TrEMBL record:
Keywords: Aminoacyl-tRNA synthetase, ATP-binding, Cytoplasm, Ligase, Nucleotide-binding, Protein biosynthesis. This is Glycine--tRNA ligase beta subunit. The gene is glyS. Residues 585-686 form the DALR anticodon binding domain. It comes from Marinobacter nauticus (Marinobacter hydrocarbonoclasticus). SUPFAM superfamilies: HD-domain/PDEase-like.
Amino acid sequence: MATQDFLVELGTEELPPKALKPLSDAFTQGIVKGLEEAGVEFGRVEAFAAPRRLAVRIRDLADAQPDKPVEKRGPAVKAAFDDAGNPTRALTGFATSLGITPDQLDTLETDKGAWLVYRTVEQGKPTVELMPELVEKSLAALPIPKRMRWGAHKTEFVRPVHWLILLFGNKVIDTSVMNLKPGNKTRGHRFHCPKELIVPTPADYEVVLKQEGYVLADFAERREQIRQGVAQLAEKEANGKAVIDEDLLDEVTALNEWPVPLMGRFEERFLDVPAEALISSMKEHQKYFHVVDASENMLPLFITVANLESKDPAQVISGNEKVIRPRLSDAAFFYETDRKTKLEDRIEALKPIVFQDKLGSLYDKSVRVAALAKKIAEAINSDPALAERAAMLAKTDLVTEMVLEFTDLQGIMGQYYASNDGEHADVAKALNEQYMPRFAGDDLPTTLTGCAVAIADRIDSLVGLFGINQPPSGTRDPFALRRASLGVLRIIIERQLPLDLQTVCEWAEQNFTVLTEQNTASTVVDYMLERFRAHYDEHGIGAEVYLAVHARRPTRPLDFDRRVKAVEAFRQLPEALALAGANKRVSNILTKQGGDSIGETVDNALLQDAAEKTLAAKVEEQAQKVLPLFEQGDYASALTSLASLREPVDTFFDDVMVMADDEAVRNNRLALLNRLRNLFLRVADISLLPTAS
């Protein structure tokens, strides 16, 4: 089948920068999905995305769908003809529905008799007929929260659309999409090349735009050019290093078609302001990259990326310097003003600020968190007074001028202001660390005071919101309780804290007087333990391992984690499959015979067969060996040791009839099996692991 390259480009007004890459990815995936569903063969797929265009090029696209054999079964031969051999109504109706005569049908022999069938070949549609609809469908399915209309058009899109290229080889596919008549003309840079440019073939697309139109259409190429240009400029002009935030780099890439990095300066006096405030001002409002020296100290420099090559770049730089100066002046003013009032004196200002209607104000939350943090600090051998103090001050920076202007600085400015007030170093640090981890993979608190406040703040929210029956539901999680749960688990595990979730949640529950739900602490613990499943899945540990441990409901996260890792190691042993199967068998037997009512005291005098005597001796031997290991939390060593029971367990089931006629012998054997199973249950229910077939 013949192939040609295909190109679609949709020209628009400037697209939202944060949405450009997701829109491009979705547009490309939509077209690919359409081609796959249509069965059209194609080669390499290339996406292009710039501020005023979305484009996709498909290499080696087949010129038509492949022909498809079609077989439609009609009536049975017996029902198709009457006794005289004439077609029945069933046969004529079937033939008429297909637009054929009965003599065009074939016979299909099956084990249930003979049937009439119609066989034909459905010719594939030409690609030029398929592509406009595929493009239209892909555009309609883009993740656009709110579409807009413009002019007198009924067409809707994220921004007004102005031109469209639909090329198959060197031919224009002349079918409208989004009420645009396709052509082979694109448009260059808004200032450098404000005119139409002909794209002869799909292969010429990015070359024409780059060489004639001053547009780098390839998002990845443009992104890398900006990265290199910014880094080289910082090194060349200031012997410094540009700090390139990946999200900011993506945004700047989406803002520029022809990026030109330029370096500007600001007064050194602004360096007295915390670097985070300066960075936030430059990054969020102006999309500037900041520059540091070899010691990571901030320099009074910034790098902006202009969307054109200016004949007088000094003018562009000067303009940017004039824009950033008042913003930095505001930051300096806020910082100076805020330091005149101590954080302690701002506590009262939290009273009018509602945390949640039923759970009170931020002040109420601070009081609860302080009481909880104090108990947590005692439990982890930290200073309770410091944790209580930090928790009371934790939200006070929310009412400072700086954080009201730059909300992403909450916690960070609290640490600066607490240090300025002369607070203990751990208290100051905790004001920032209370928010850690802010996202998956983020740093954890480094101080125990910070750990205590971070855990207390999250647990208070969890218990409070569950207690008034406002847990997360579906995708709705306005208080980010899922993230809060994972944050608590990470802090406890990675900082090796000896905390019991049940105890901590009960402490938190005692601080509330407005909770309406019963057993809130236990409900929250169950919810948090469920979050472990995704946590371990990300670390490549299967759900069956998580479920085996979860069945025992250990409520100390550090203990839960040790069990999971021990079971995962045990699962790799050659004995694991057989022992999991044996445990499943034992579990089923015990459940049928009374479950919890069965004891585990074995009377050696009632042991009859050699296999059960051997197993009893081995179980007793293992009990003496592993029980101290369980007490130490050394589950891995304990399970490795218990793996040696595989052979005596297998022999027992091969040679011994558990359900003996003699009731005393039968009950003794059940007790032996229960004792065996309970050893494993000290870690997990390994009967939930995969078993040997």
